[in-house]
Fold:
Amino acid sequence: MRLRQWLTAIRQQWQFIIYVFIGVLLRPSELAWNRQLLFFAYFLLLFFTINFLLRRTDNKNRTENKQTALWGYLMLFSFIFILITRLIPFYQFGEAPLGYDTGFYLRNFYVNDSSFLSSSAYYLNLVPLHIFGLSPLHAISFIYVISQLLIAGGLYILFRSTKTKDSSALAAIAIFLFSISALQFYAYWWMLGQQMIATAFLLITIALLFRHPLLAIFTGAAGFLFHLPTFGLFALSFFVFSLINIVYCFARKKEINSYLIKLFIIGACLSIIIIVFKGALLWQYFNEYIIEHKGLYNTFPFWEIVRFKGAFLSVSTLSVTSIVLLPFTVYGLLKPSLWKLAFNTDNVSRSFIIFLYVSFFILLPLVIFPVIYQQRFMIILDLFIIIFATPVLYLLISRFANDKIIKIIMFLFLACAFYNVGAMAWKKQPQIPPEELQEIKSLSMTAESDAFIIATNSFYTPWIYGFGGRKSYGPGWGPDPWGYDSWMEFWRGSDEEAKMEMINSTFASPTYFFIGAKQQQGFPFQIFIEKNEKFINISPHVWKFTPSL
Structure:
């Protein structure tokens, strides 16, 4: 009898049991045990608090939302805050204060021919700005800042696509959460240009699937052309979602409806567009990444792992940066019925909710397991964490919308959240010190036209590549003239004659070696360069090698 009672209790409390289990998995393992315990206590406390506050909440006893103007002000202020925090690094540190991909984007715009530019959607959208007088670097920066507003706009369109009464309020909360997300600011700081624009198109495309389905063909095609990995997620989600719809029709013995036909049209059109424009690249990725490396970054040589992981923050930082929001997200995931309650209607599209769940649970293994591009998928997962937390937060806010104490607490929370990200934007240093960047840029004016510029550390390769203005090389990126073994011999080898032979046999013109302050100092190659008479120190971090001496 007791066993049956236990089983009954477990069936009734399955959501709480899963919630606790997820809380254990999500504890930030890099924190000390006492802080992990505090996180878990916070996680449990929020479950009971949310459950208690929402237990008796329904469409009848919920405080009526009469704060339409307030949601509008929150949304407007969030957009302004996004713009300010994204512009602060430029105000603080000049024209290149973000990640090293800046160098790659700039170099690709300058050196590649028109056929390349026309085949790349990202560079194609820079061309009009360049024609109207913006330099390539300013055009890249302008589009990048706009991409942040587009992501916020994508969240707005996503929630508004439900066509429900309270959707604008939920959109305001989602945009606010995006504006105060530390991980989203880090993603911006790393200068992930193509991914940021594709992420905006991803949100808009999902929204269009449930409002104007056939228009999703155009935004989906644009997203695929901007960034294949981001829309690889959409392709998987779309396939699983379509399969669920097909199975549902057959299981219920229903005729194929018009919406399913539209899904077939969307899938067919996007497949044709991708094959035409990206077919060769997809086939190359499939052979190299899936067939040869099984889709896992840990199958690559160890010096390439960072690049194939996505060259971003570690996955463990996700639970740290989202620590306040995670309990709301997990609660929202475990209570899908809250979506109808939050939207204040029973007519919210079931398909809309299913697609969000499908995307979330496809993202999870992409972030948990060592798949190629793992760390970049974390950025999109953070957006879905925001999306699933939004209905829970909205219900809590609307439950006590007229309570003065709650209003004061909400105001203090808003102020602290904005201050936290604002201070982060103000204090965040550029990836390359401005004085070092200026040294590199000066070489574009002073170095001989046939000169080579060499980065002696992979961190500086993109900066040399983009701002040096000459033929540029560096370890691990682009047309690297030396393999890993040769670089190791150059960096650490004791045979100075072998080093000189490597340089003479590779570079026949004047060659400038850049040794930045951010790379480890005291390597044998640095001592070799400083002592060898063929190298002349022309600035704090630049040494000139002249073969004729």
Summary: The longest strand covers residues 535-539. The chain has a mean pLDDT of 83.
